[in-house]
Design brief:
InterPro entries: Bact_Chemotaxis_MeTrfase, Chemotaxis_MeTrfase_CheR, CheR_C, CheR_MeTrfase, CheR_N, CheR_N_sf, SAM-dependent_MTases_sf. It is an enzyme of class 2 (transferase). Its EC number is 2.1.1.80. With about 300 residues, this protein is an alpha/beta fold. The protein has two domains: about 90 residues, Orthogonal Bundle (Chemotaxis Receptor Methyltransferase Cher, domain 1), CATH 1.10.155.10; about 190 residues, Rossmann fold. It is about 45% helix and about 15% strand. The chain has ten helices and ten strands. A seven-stranded mixed sheet has the order 6-2-1-7-8-10-9. Helix 1 runs parallel beside helix 3, helix 2 packs across helix 4 and helix 5 crosses helix 6. It starts with about 25 loop residues before the first helix and ends with a strand.
Length: about 300
């Protein structure tokens, strides 16, 4: 079993003075630079109301990097943006995820899509590909892997099936790669699936569970900035991009949905989060269920 990982609780308080107990203050010019940098690099629009949150969360990064103030942090971003981009994005966003969150999406996979895809791939020898875009700490792609593995077992099909899981946050990706979770994170997993797909920790790992090696075989975890170049070519049968575009403005959403459309064949599926919509943002998709979209033929 992999070693446990301690996750960032993301609780931080904003400082009130340059030499205060909570760290340096984020000045107007520094916040203006960070807002533009985050928008250009991540597509995230930070409002004035987010200033205290940004200050509080980034004070931890200043301490970790041994920087005296936010001006030094801004200089780091100017001269070496790639080295810090993932940590910055991780600090200012909140990775809220769970196994089998929005269960109606998994019901559609289990009852309709996976049986159809597997039969089709078995006939024509094609590949089955699903992309979890914004996979956070891995609960989503591993949940998809569970239902995919079960569908393959039921049919006895021997096909090339894989799940791509990507995220910008290096901390989230590290936990996803380890695949180790506290028992209280398995609330959405049935008892049957817990027994089938998790290995229970013992001794110093008591209270933890590691995902089954079969799930690891199905999932490839890679870093990716959705606003930058994509190395993969597709096509994907389905893309899960849930609770990601809530951070983006309208132009960024429009560009992202257009890129997703190019990664999907006619009839391919795009899954969004419960508070997200494609209304007025794309003509490439039609709504067929609760936050489930299908690419038009």
């Amino acid at each position: 079993m992999a070693a446990p990982v301690m996750t960032d609780d993301r609780v931080a308080s904003a400082g009130s003075s340059a030499a205060g107990l909570n760290g340096p203050t984020l000045q107007d010019t520094e916040f203006a630079f960070l807002r533009q940098f985050v928008y250009d690099q991540c597509g995230i629009a930070l409002s004035d109301q987010k200033r205290q949150l940004v200050q509080g969360r980034l004070q931890r990064r200043l301490r970790a990097l041994r920087l005296r103030d936010f001006s030094e942090y801004c200089e780091l971003l100017k001269h070496d943006p790639a080295s810090e981009l993932g940590e910055l994005a991780s600090a200012i966003s909140t990775n809220v995820t769970a196994f089998f969150r929005e269960m109606h999406h998994y019901d559609l996979l289990i009852e309709k899509l996976l049986p159809e895809w597997i039969e089709q791939k078995r006939r024509d020898g094609g590949r089955l590909r699903i992309w979890s875009a914004g996979c956070s700490t891995g609960e989503e792609p591993y949940a998809i892997a569970m239902v995919l593995a079960e569908a393959l077992e039921r049919t006895g099909a021997k096909i090339d099936a894989k799940i791509l899981a990507t995220d910008l946050s290096p901390q989230a990706l590290e936990q996803a790669r380890r695949g180790v979770y506290a028992f209280d994170r398995l609330g959405g997993v049935s008892d049957e699936r817990r027994k089938r797909w998790f290995l229970r920790g013992q001794g110093e790992y008591d209270g933890l569970a590691s995902v089954h090696p079969r799930l690891r075989e199905l999932v490839t975890i890679l870093p990716l900035n959705l606003l930058h170049d994509w190395p993969m070519q597709g096509p994907f049968d389905a893309i899960f991009c849930r609770n990601v575009v809530i951070y983006f403005d309208k132009p960024t959403k429009e560009k992202l949905f257009a890129r997703y459309a190019r990664m999907l064949p006619s009839g391919g599926y795009l899954f969004l989060g419960h508070s997200e919509s494609m209304h007025g943002l794309s003509n490439d998709f039609e709504l067929i269920g609760r936050t489930v979209y299908r690419k038009r033929t």
